[in-house]
Amino acid sequence: MKARRVAEGALGVALLAFAAFAEVRQPAAVPAREPMSGLTHGAAGDTADPVELRGLDSVTPVASYTLHAKLDPATHTVAGSGEIRFVNVSSRALDHLYVHLYLNAFESQRTVFGRQRSGGFRGNTRLDAPGSIEVTRFYAKELDRELFPRGATTENDEDDRTDIRVPLPTPLAPGATLTIETEFTSKLPAIVLRTGFDGSFHMVGQWFPKLAKLEDDGTFAHFPFQRFSEFYADYGDYDVTVDVPESFVVGATGVKEEERVEGGTRRVRYAQKAVHDFAFTAWDGFQERNAEVGGVKLRCLFPKGYEHAADAELAAATGGLERYGALFGEYPYPTLTLVHPPSTAVEAGGMEYPTLITTGGPAWLGALPVRPFEQITLHELGHQWFYGLVATNENRYPFLDEGLTTYATGEAAQELYGDTEITSLYPLETAALDRYRGAGVASHASIATGAGDFVTGGDYGTLVYARTATVLRTIDRVWNGAALRALSSYARTTRFRHPGPDALEKAIREAGGPEAASFFHTAVFERGSVDFEPLPAVNVSEENGGFSSEVVVRRSGTLVVPVEILVGRADGSTETLSWDGVGDSKRFVLTGTSSVTSVVVDPQTRLLIDEDKLNDRWTSEVTESAPRTRALATTIVLAALGSVLP
């Protein structure tokens, strides 16, 4: 696995050089993308209407945790104890709870996680050392009753213990509180899918008994640990004390309230209001750098020799906090911790938790002209809004977090690093990479597919991440920034509210009009796709010496989107035509003193969602070798980058 990644990285470097050579020899002009006349709603520079952001104090804590965790780095176990305070904020009495014990996903190959194929996405295919969580106490103080059902498994799956139904002997009325005392032992696996150990390095995620998300109607949004799914939980107040050996450095969710060393043990207490998870890392190899921006204290933990990566990540986080704050509302927490795992702990990288993100990658990546450390930092930081502050159901609609964050990453990177934010070598920008990765997969599944229903990791990654971002960028380019305005409004108005996709579609309708909303709905929910192709023009000589020319553009697919067509004539003149995209084809009859010699669909490259950009041009002249060479080089390089970038 590691050797393969190194080889792919070397291939990517070589192909970048090849693409650069091709582009230097045959530079291409990139036309400005002005709004499409008559098809826009609002101005590109418009910002969302002012919205009073909900503050941390306005959030009702539903599931709050006061925990004590003692890490034994020799056995890679966490001895945990503490108290869970749960409030029934739903509209009906509850006769049960659901508790997630997600570390049990790694106790064998027979679990839901172990049985799912991983091709095309992250996640080790074998367990080098298993993990588990055993609950020995789950005592309800108000009921004076031990609640945890011994030997319980996930419903309808006796080989999985990650989603446990816990019956209540007495129904919990709406508004009532249940206080649960708990004790448990968590055995961390060798690093696998965001959590575990690698030598003395420990990334501790999903390590405690975690209550499933309570919905307004009194049901629980519960699910086993699935390979392609991330998480969903209620907001609460967390207060966690972590014990580690004295030589270890700890990073965690929230604000460090207290730290002291006694008898060879380092005890660190972290607390944070209005978050929905808690993770920590501990290692005796961490170096540390700090910064501050806008009142937010930044802390970067990294291996020795990665100082350049830490500097790049702190700089990206500084710019990202400012940019995301301007677009989606100010970051409300006082801290942000960045963790760069050691290069041997790849699966711990590229993940988000409240106020804590993990980056990653070997030190040599910093030599590439692709800003890898900045890119991954901006992506994981973007999750602080869509995962952290908006908090959608990542199991049911993963695109509402990963897809929106992928789009937002590109917007922030373009602002911070220019039009070619991924690399200084035209034309490899974020939009091109996402367009390439998301093309040709619309028929495999809908973007709005649940995480547990994707057949392969390749489909999950391309549809949820890349294609979602391409849909939104197409909306921006056709409807004059409507997607960015919509996301700005959506992120502000749904903060701390756990919205579904209807809220996003509503925001797009308000920002771009019904056509933009219909395009979004079809693209996301109905496997929508589109491809435009011009047919050869037919020129007929007229008696007066002029020409009557027929231009036909064909559309395939289900997406309806307006498009421009640039027509060129033999005398060098051009004419721009417009089509609303309705119907299977559009026929134009043009007259003039010169014949039509070229037809270019989407000359401003607004339709990133177009499945095949190489068939967008017809010309009567054989002069296309240089552009086709550039297109081939671009395609090869994008394929290489798609295999090595997160």
Round the mean pLDDT to the nearest integer and report it: 88
Instruction: Please state how the strands of the largest beta sheet are arranged side by side.
Output: 5-4-7-2-1-13-16-15
CATH C-level of the largest domain: Mainly Alpha
Which regions are unreliable across 5 or more consecutive residues at pLDDT < 50? 1-48, 420-427, 622-646
CATH H-tier superfamily of the largest domain: Neutral Protease Domain 2
Total number of helices: 11
Strand content range: 25-35%
Number of domains: 3
**Main sheet makeup:** 8 strands, mixed
**Spatial separation of the terminal alpha carbons:** 15 Å
* Helix percentage: 25-40%
Number of strands: 30
User: Can you tell me the overall shape?
Assistant: elongated
Task: Look up the CATH topology of the largest domain.
Answer: Neutral Protease, domain 2
- Rg over C-alpha atoms, rounded to the nearest angstrom: 27 Å
Q: Structural class of the helix and strand makeup?
A: alpha+beta
- CATH architecture level-2 label of the largest domain: Orthogonal Bundle
